[in-house]
Amino acid sequence: MATTPKKDSTAESTVLQAKPTPKAAEQGDHDRIVMASRKADGSMDQTDPEFIGDKDVALAAAKEQLAVQAASAVDVAARGVSSKTGDDGAGSSEPDADVQALKDAQDEAVKAAESQAEREIGERHKGLGD
To answer: What rounded mean pLDDT belongs to the chain?
Structure first.
């Protein structure tokens, strides 16, 4: 009885390429994210991030994240600058000018952070991730 030799059939993988096409090289690595991880300076800590999912959710998350980080940075920068107490240690009903100045600086930082979030999401949002 004659048998035919078994062929060694190794199908080419469509995932791995021995020689990447120029199109694959142009795309490069990037991260698909819904919410960014942030460095201490507020910049994104991903490789060429692409926001996916609902754009409104991504925008709200980025605004909140950057606003909290920006307000905290203002607070840290001002920490220890003003530690005045009254002569007798009693409080006053008058608003503290230093506290109001800090609050104003935080509000300004939050507005700038929200603008940054809108720019980032607008530039990098690619759809619902389908």
So the answer is: 76
